[in-house]
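Justification of computing resources. Each target in the renewal requires a structure prediction run like the one illustrated here; the chain below, 116 residues long, is used simply to show the kind of job we budget for.
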Amino acid sequence: MSEPSPADGAVTFRSFPRRVREALGTDDPPAGPGRRLLDLLAATHQHLAAMALAPDRPSLPDLIDAIPARAWQQHPDALALVQSAVAEGSAIVRELERSAEADRAAAEAERREQGR
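Resulting structure tokens:
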């Protein structure tokens, strides 16, 4: 599978809040993985903004979208940063999704056990 493009990264970062909300039923992820995800997004945004490849934007996806194609070609380190953050962030979101599914399965098993 090929590495995600900057546009793919922006789409992925935009999907994280929805995926967390669907998995957990809330916009507030748990402290451990949720904090790691928020920290990752903030650090990635901060690093890209510091590279000054485009005027800063309030959200990471918007900042990625604002960076011209030529800048990505001239700064492969910026592209690598986004690709790494996409991989790490996706892993964290999958961890949240698996944990939420396990919690739902355990709660359902407990309800069935109590119903006997």
